[in-house]
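[INFO] parsing input record for Putative ATP/GTP-binding protein
[DEBUG] input buffer:
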Amino acid sequence: MTDLLTLNPLTPLRETVRRPLYTETTSSQALFLPIAPPTLGTAGAVIGRELYSGKAFIYCPFCAFGDGLPGGNMIVLGDTGRGKSALVKTYTARQIRLGRKVVVLDTKEQKEREEGEWAALCRSLTGRAPVKFSPGGDHTRGAACINPMDPAIAGKRQIELVRTIVELGLGKALDEFAGSALRIAIRQAHQRASADGRTPVLADVAAALRSPDPADAAAKKRTREELLGDGLEASYVLDRLCGTDQDATGDLIGMLDGPTSLSVDLDADMIVFDLTKVPSGGVAMTILVAVISIFLEEVWLRPACECGTGPSDHERRVVDAKSGAWELGANPASKCLRYTQRKRILVCEEAWHILGTPQLAALLEKFLKFARGYGLSCIFIVHHLSDIDDSPETQAALKMADTVVVYSMKKSEAEDTVKRLGLPAWTAEHIMRLRRGVALWKVGEVIYPGVQHLLTEAETHLCFSSGSMSDLTPSTPDHE
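[DEBUG] output buffer:
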């Protein structure tokens, strides 16, 4: 085991994810055997070991899918400093070794490094810096902008996205008149920007709302003044969010108010969206996450085979001549024998930003509900369920988490977690006593009471996120 765990997991020539682990604790295994839960197999990413049996704990929702695990969504909970982020970082790094692609919404800043927690791991794996958003948009320092009106987002989804932005900024849902005026303005913004030979932005939608076309009003059996009144409030919201030529204090200035400047390689193994400079809990964070979610759905989640080609590049193979049923087969150009959907993982740090906002929870519900069709596993990291509300949208999201990982919590939080997730009553006291780095795992309906997460030396350096609270020892090289 020692030799295996000292291997560098980031070196492609060294395998750490498919090899079995062996243990000498036969006495422990014999005692635990009558009640031990079944293993999850030998295919997947090595997490660590089960403390009560000494067996290796290997987990992969894509490998275990269909065998007691109906989906790949996961929620990770626990007090600060218990090992949640370290687990997810090493898990995603090891999954990348299996050919997965990962996107991270990083909202946790390391003050001493002035960057997000995932930045070091992202650079180590891809050689690229995270995609960083900053209010005010200092693009000279690498700040990114994403355009909700980008043509990469399909027409219907674009209308839904802009409406969501307005409703989040307004704090309430638009009525039918305002919704109709907004749809018309989006169409007009595209037409006017196209005539100028450029891509429309949100400011074009605001301008179109304030200058409706009489022909559009007539088509809706409204006067021009009535159509103007229908969309005037929405235009004020967009002005407040994106600013104007006279006012540069909008919440989204530099992030959503211009053409897309994302220098992001969608084929990269890992993409990190650094949201650490965006005020948490505010409207800017909520809207930015909504826009990124739609952008990922329309661009990043497009079907692709593990060989890197699309479905249209593969041959159709009839499997039932009577019914005409077919499947995607080989791609002679890439020498791929069969179309296999590229698996993806979406990680949300400090996920209370999402699960605690009904509009965002509803927006991401499609990710969760159709994750199997996307070949997607969503991972939400939160401290406690008390951080998020008990809305129907949130409860629906929690119910679609087929894997639950719980680290140590205080008594009240442990009892609340057990109640809200429907865990057995005995797990509340058990969760309170878990040591750092040890978690209770619930995979499908099977509970693994003590799984110890193990890191290699290389992973320890990349996953350490408590530098501000740690003292340097005399043996530390920095003291030499």
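[INFO] The chain has three domains: 21-60, 73-146+264-307+336-442, 155-242.
[INFO] shutting down worker
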